[in-house]
Amino acid sequence: xxxxxxxxxxxxxxxxxxxxxxxxxxxxxxxxxxxxxxxxxxxxxxxxxxxxxxxxxxxxxxxxxxxxxxxxxxxxxxxxxxxxxxxxxxxxxxxxxxxxxxxxxxxxxxxxxxxxxxxxxxxxxxxxxxxxxxxxxxxxxxxxxxxxxxxx
Length: 152
Prior knowledge:
Layout: H1 2-9, H2 35-42, H3 58-63, E1 67-69, H4 72-81, E2 89-91, H5 103-106, H6 116-135, H7 137-146
Parallel strand pairs: 1-2
């Protein structure tokens, strides 16, 4: 959902032409989006008909300027697997910082297995934070780069 929203809303500018690419720390290659995900995104006029899951890879991490995760455990997993990418791994709800004051409040709950209303609530939460990310994207990318965010 986050990838689709970001790519839909991020218009690209002369200074930033960013695209989101979805990958999971435990994802199985090639699984289509759930019916609930398709439904809530279709309600917004967006399609994930051709979306297929894929795992995080060394190449994706190396080529990314910013890696945005939904939960603290995802962030910790990526820190362990890719310590060199520390400065570019951020939690969506805490995008401007690596500081963790309340672990639970920073996570966006995965609605997998839930009902359609849970998917709608999750989508609304992601929408709110993706908008903030896009509004501050130039500064966030600059900070990640200055702190060694992109592997050279």
